[in-house]
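pinned: reference chain
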Amino acid sequence: MNSLHSIIGKTTRTSSGKKVLNVFNVKSMSTVTSSTAASPIIELREYEIAPQYVAPYTQATSDASTLRKELLPMRLFSLPETGGKLNVATHMYYFEGGYEERNQRRKKMGTNKEWNAYLSSVRPFMMNQKSTIFVEAPLVAKMEGICGLKPGNIEAFLQNKTGTNESVDSSIIELRRYQLKLGYDTVPKFLELYGRGLPSKLNAPGTDPTTMLVTILYSEVGQLNEVIEVWRHGSTSAMERSRVAARAATEWKRSIADIAGLANIFTNTIHKPVSFSPLK
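pinned: its structure tokens
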């Protein structure tokens, strides 16, 4: 129930008798055929690890990190520090080719002996697993100041940090999660309000220079009408300085006041990226 646009489909026949599915966007009434290129998706996987096994799980996963990156387009791998359930291995993957790319990669993983050996070694450490599919909000590509998860973006940002006083070891990832009310138009309304006030927050005087909005995601498969902001800060102190600055951003405060009426739940967790995470 979170689609940005309602769509309807109609099957027609060409002069040769071939059936063609036309999909109509009700809002814009633009027409695309079923041959349209796939849209990128982001998979968020969350594995709850038994507390006594966090260290061996992390070590085994680190040892297999090169293989993971060969098999999957990983963008983030982290563990929560505070703000919710602990010992949850949290990882994101950016499939530029959409579901088809994901399916192909997972099929290849299933036949990789080295990967299967790794899975066999860590499965006893995991208590449960969760997978949710998200897409990036359109404003990620349109608005200046948002990094985006597309391969190369994160790496370019971190490369620009080389030579600064920031230590990657102190950096944190902040996940801000909104569970919105049911409704087809709830997510579009949220993103409209969010985008309206965001520039004032990003440009607020006093914002720490290490603070970066990585992406804004909304769910497509799994728990619907969920929106996630992913922020990267050079440290917890940097996060606090940026929060104080945001509270003085007038347009942002107005947007948040309007957004509050759309959300059922809001949570905020601080994560520590592991050593092999591209985002760190």
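why pinned: Residues 1-12, 18-35 have pLDDT under 50 and may be disordered. Residues 186-202 form the longest helix (17 residues).
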